């Protein structure tokens, strides 16, 4: 199994992409910390794992809560081999001038500053394990998207942060990579689709933006995440991997 003996700490893991990732990691032999602001759901997800797992209530924008989550994981498992920064929020669907200061601050805190907190808390353990960090970014952080200015800013920053961290932590044998999904059917996307002016049309639109012709479920992201967290990816760092069915490719008919 690809992650036998490893301990994987995943944020936003109670639902959506994060949930698929912890399930896939556990199937590959990892013990997982299911970290989520929704503690009850995190417990339920942790209880589904085939081996020892931990559900932890943690708002990733709260430094003290992140420190406690890392400490709890180390108390229980004695090590951390991987931190997957996956927790994120999407709203609002607005241009920059229509975005309130509170919305801007929340997006930055949950989607970006959280990486600062998890890195500060978990770096000593990652240095010991010569571990790895994975960030769930988004293709829009590379190519942009209308009406999601603040969200795009967080994901674009996460992508450049991934490269900077990859260089800074390479001397410690720590690899840092990012995954860029395009669309993935999760509760977040369902909520955002429902907010659009034509919720029915959004389904076929989301199928069409992917060159491969459909909007996937989270399993496609989880399979890529398992690979990047595993020793199979031992010489891959600073990689920004689109898992997007070719959504970024241009000049379609
Ligand atoms: N679904 C997509 O189409 C898509 C595409 C590209 C990137 N992403 C990114 O993937 C990640 C996961 O998105 P998803 O679609 O699975 O979303 P989701 O809403 O289905 O799941 C997100 C999880 O994160 C948790 N969460 C939210 N705020 C948190 C906080 N402050 N602290 C801890 N946990 C928190 C939620 O409780 C939830 O369990 C996000 O970073 C998102 O930006 C999603």
Characterize this entry briefly.
With about 250 residues, the chain is an alpha/beta fold. It is built from nine helices and seven strands; from the N terminus they run βαβαβαβαβααβαααβ. Nicotinamide-adenine-dinucleotide binds near residues 58, 61, 86, 181 and 184.
Describe this structure as you would to a colleague.
The protein has 253 residues and is an alpha/beta fold. The chain has a single domain, classed as NAD(P)-binding Rossmann-like Domain (Rossmann fold). It is built from nine helices and seven strands; from the N terminus they run βαβαβαβαβααβαααβ. A seven-stranded parallel β-sheet has the order 3-2-1-4-5-6-7, sandwiched between helices. Helix 4 (101-129) runs parallel beside helix 6. The mean pLDDT is 97. Nicotinamide-adenine-dinucleotide (NAD) is lined by residues 11-12, 14-18, 36-38, 58-61, 86-90, 110, 136, 138, 181, 183-184, 186-189. Residues 11-12, 14-18, 36-38, 58-61, 86-90, 110, 136, 138, 181, 183-184, 186-189 line the site of nicotinamide-adenine-dinucleotide.
Q: Which helices and strands occur, and which strands form pairs?
A:
Elements: E1 7-11, H1 16-27, E2 31-36, H2 39-47, E3 53-57, H3 63-77, E4 82-85, H4 101-129, E5 132-136, H5 140-143, H6 149-169, E6 175-181, H7 187-194, H8 199-209, H9 219-229, E7 240-243
Parallel strand pairs: 1-2, 1-4, 2-3, 4-5, 5-6, 6-7
Helix pairs in contact: 1-9, 3-4, 4-6
Q: What is the CA-based Rg, rounded?
A: 17 Å
CATH architectural designation: 3-Layer(aba) Sandwich
Which CATH class is shown? Alpha Beta
Mean pLDDT over all positions: 97
Q: Summarize the biggest pleated sheet.
A: 7 strands, parallel
Bound molecules: nicotinamide-adenine-dinucleotide
CATH fold label: Rossmann fold
Spans of at least 5 consecutive residues whose pLDDT stays below 50 are: none
What is the ordering of alpha helices and beta strands? EHEHEHEHEHHEHHHE
Helix % is 40-55%
């Amino acid at each position: 199994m690809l992650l036998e003996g490893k301990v994987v700490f995943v944020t936003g893991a109670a639902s959506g992409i994060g949930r698929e990732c912890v399930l896939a990691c556990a199937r590959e032999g990892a013990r997982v910390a299911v970290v989520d602001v929704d503690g009850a759901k995190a417990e339920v997800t942790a209880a589904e794992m085939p081996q020892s797992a931990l559900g932890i209530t943690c708002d990733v924008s709260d430094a003290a809560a992140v420190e406690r989550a890392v400490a709890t994981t180390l108390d229980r498992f004695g090590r951390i081999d991987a931190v997957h920064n996956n927790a994120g929020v999407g709203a609002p669907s607005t241009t920059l001038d229509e975005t309130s200061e509170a919305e801007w601050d929340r997006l930055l805190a949950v989607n970006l500053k959280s990486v600062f907190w998890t890195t500060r808390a978990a770096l000593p353990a990652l240095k010991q394990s010569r571990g790895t960090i994975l960030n769930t970014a988004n293709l829009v952080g590379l190519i942009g998207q209308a009406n999601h200015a603040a969200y795009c800013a967080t994901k674009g920053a996460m992508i450049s942060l991934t490269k900077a961290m990859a260089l800074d932590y390479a001397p410690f044998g720590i690899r840092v990579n990012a995954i860029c999904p395009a669309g993935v059917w999760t509760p977040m996307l369902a909520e955002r689709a429902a907010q659009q002016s034509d919720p029915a049309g959004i389904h076929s639109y989301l199928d069409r933006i992917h060159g491969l012709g459909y909007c996937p479920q989270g399993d496609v992201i989880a399979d890529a995440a398992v690979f990047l967290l595993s020793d199979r990816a031992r010489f891959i760092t600073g990689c920004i991997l689109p898992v997007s069915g070719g959504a970024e490719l241009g000049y379609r008919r």
